[in-house]
Write a structure and sequence with these properties.
337 residues, alpha/beta, Alpha-Beta Plaits, 2 domains, 8-stranded parallel barrel, 4-stranded antiparallel beta sheet, elongated, binds phosphoenolpyruvate, binds manganese (II) ion
Length: 337
C-alpha cells in the first residue's frame, strides 16, 4: 500500500501516519526525494486501519502497489537510485567500470591489475576471495587473506572495491574489507543470504540468477531492501539458453525493461555473459548503447594464466580499448539528449 501525502505535509502529520501503521503491526518505509512524501506499507495489508489513516490530516490518498516487488518498483520511486561510495556515484547518468581478476591470486597480482585499470578509467576493482566453483576440487579462493589484499589495493589506488560473499557467516567479514558486496548468480535466491546482506550498510550488487525471470530478479532485490538496505545494484550476467557457442546468452533486453520496472542501477557483466574474450568488447559497446549504468569486465595482465575464467578474461590493453570505445558511445548518447 502507498500512502501519498499532500505536497507540503508536515513532519508531525507524517509521524502520525507512521505511528498508525506501526500500531497496526506493519513496517512503514518513507520514500525520500519526492515532491510529495510517500509512505509505503509492506506486509499483510489487511491489518491496516485504513479509515483511520485516511482521516489523518495531510494524507492525500491511499492506493495499492500493483507489482509484487514494492521498494524496488518505479511505481514507488520515480527517480533513479544513485548509490554513493566514496566520491563515486553508481546509477543515474554516470557510467562506471568494474574490472579486475575473476580470482584474487596474490597481492602483487591484484595491485598490478588495480593500478593499470585505474589508469585506463576504471573506478571499481573486482576480485573474488570466496569463489563459487562448479568443482569442489577447483581453487576456492584465498578467503580473508584475499580480502586483505583488496583493502591494500584500495589504499594504494583509491579504487572502490567489490567482492562476492557466499555464506551468511561471512557477510560481516567481507563487509569489513570491501565497499560493495556481490551476490553471485547461484545465490540469487538464497533468501537467508539476501536477508543477511540486507542488514549491512555496504551496497550490494545482486547478480541475476542464470534462469531467473525479471520478476524473480526484482523479488530477490526486494528481499535485501525490505531488511533496510536500499543500496542495491542489479547485474545481468547472462542466462542459460540452448545457444552453446557462448557460455551464456547476454539478455540485453533487460536494460530498457528494468529501467521501466525499477529505479535501481543496472550493470552488465560482459565476461560471464559471453565466456569468450574476443566478444567482450563488442558486447560492452552494445551494453552501453542500450543504456547500462556500468560494466563488469574480468581483467588480468596475463589472462591465460588466470586461476579461473581464463577464456573470458581480457588483458590490460583490451580493457583500455573497451573504456575508450564505450566512453565514445556514452558521449554520443549524451549529446543526443
Ligand atoms: C564472478 O563474478 O566471478 C562470478 C562467479 O559471477 P557469477 O556469479 O555471475 O557466475
Ligand atoms: Mn569469474
Amino acid at each position: 500500500m502507498v500512502i501519498v501525502m499532500v505536497p507540503k505535509a508536515k513532519k508531525s502529520q507524517i509521524d502520525k501516519v507512521i505511528n498508525s501503521v506501526k500500531k497496526d503491526g506493519l513496517k512503514p518505509h518513507v520514500s525520500k526525494g519526492e515532491e510529495r512524501k510517500l509512505i509505503l506499507v509492506i506486509g499483510d495489508e489487511r491489518k491496516l486501519n485504513l479509515d483511520h489513516i485516511k482521516a489523518i490530516e495531510g494524507v492525500e490518498k491511499v492506493h495499492p502497489i500493483l507489482k509484487p516487488y514494492k521498494l524496488a518498483s518505479r511505481e514507488v520511486q520515480k527517480e533513479d537510485t544513485i548509490i554513493k561510495v566514496d566520491h563515486l556515484k553508481i546509477g543515474g547518468d554516470s557510467l562506471v567500470y568494474m574490472a579486475g581478476p575473476c580470482t584474487i591470486e596474490s597481492e602483487k597480482q591484484l595491485i598490478k591489475i588495480a593500478k593499470s585499470i585505474k589508469k585506463s578509467g576504471a573506478q571499481i576493482l573486482r576480485g573474488g576471495a570466496f569463489k563459487p566453483r562448479t568443482s569442489p576440487y577447483a581453487f576456492q579462493g584465498l578467503g580473508e587473506k584475499g580480502l586483505k589484499f583488496m583493502q591494500k589495493a584500495k589504499k594504494e589506488t583509491g579504487l572502490v572495491t567489490i567482492s562476492e560473499v557466499m555464506d551468511t557467516h561471512d557477510v560481516d567479514l567481507v563487509a569489513k574489507y570491501v565497499d560493495i558486496l556481490q551476490i553471485g548468480t547461484r545465490n540469487m535466491q538464497n533468501f537467508q543470504l539476501l536477508k543477511a546482506v540486507g542488514k549491512v550498510k555496504n551496497p550490494v550488487m545482486l547478480k541475476r540468477g542464470m534462469t531467473a525471470t525479471f520478476d524473480e530478479f526484482l523479488m530477490a532485490a526486494e528481499y535485501i531492501m525490505s531488511e533496510g538496505n536500499k543500496k542495491v545494484i542489479l547485474c545481468e550476467r547472462g542466462i542459460r539458453t540452448f545457444v552453446k557457442y557462448t557460455r551464456n546468452t547476454l539478455d540485453l533486453n533487460i536494460v530498457p525493461v528494468l529501467k521501466e520496472m525499477t529505479h535501481l542501477p543496472i550493470i552488465i557483466d560482459v565476461s560471464h555473459s559471453t565466456g569468450i574474450r574476443k566478444i567482450v568488447r563488442p558486447m560492452a559497446r552494445a551494453a552501453v548503447a542500450a543504456g547500462a549504468h556500468g560494466l563488469m569486465i574480468e581483467t588480468h595482465y596475463s589472462p591465460e594464466d588466470s586461476y579461473s575464467d581464463a577464456a573470458q578474461t581480457v588483458d590490460l590493453d583490451e580493457f583500455k580499448k573497451i573504456v575508450k570505445e564505450t566512453q565514445a558511445i556514452e558521449n554520443i548518447l549524451k549529446n543526443m539528449n
